[in-house]
Each structure stands twice: as structure tokens, then as C-alpha cells.
Amino acid sequence: MATVNVERHAWKSLEADGRYGRVVVISDTVYLDPDTGGVLKRKRHRRPIEPDADISGEPAVIKAVCNAIRTDDALARWAESQEDQEV
Fold it and tell me: Are the beta carbons of 47 and 29 closer than 8 angstroms?
């Protein structure tokens, strides 16, 4: 079995939905050839952070984005959308 080096990125980019105060963290896992260092495979991961989620363990830049888009209006729309789904 061939050896492959794995390089994980904590996060690559963010998508912010200001309407509902939701953030999606996008990260990549890169599989590298140990001999050449070339990229063998790349996997993209998307992790949503809902407006009511605890963000205390997130990096400062992600906290800043979450706090910036979690306005009272956005949180009210989020709560309303959750109530609509319960019906």
C-alpha cells in the first residue's frame, strides 16, 4: 500500500448568509504524494454554523463573521423559519 501525506486545512473560506445569520465554513483535505509533493486528491468539506450554535470554540475570524451577520432581524427570520418547519 502506498504512503500518502495528508494535509488538513482548518478552513479555507466562509460563506455568510446575512438573511438568516448562517455561516458555512469551507475546508479542504489535501492528499499529497510523499515523493513528489504533488496533489493526489482534494476533498472539499462544508460545515454549517447555524445562528443558534455555540461559536465559542471557533477561530476569532469565524466568530467575527458570525457576530457581524447575527443581527436581531436575521435571528428573528431564523427563529421564524424554524417554527415554520415544526408545523
Answer: no
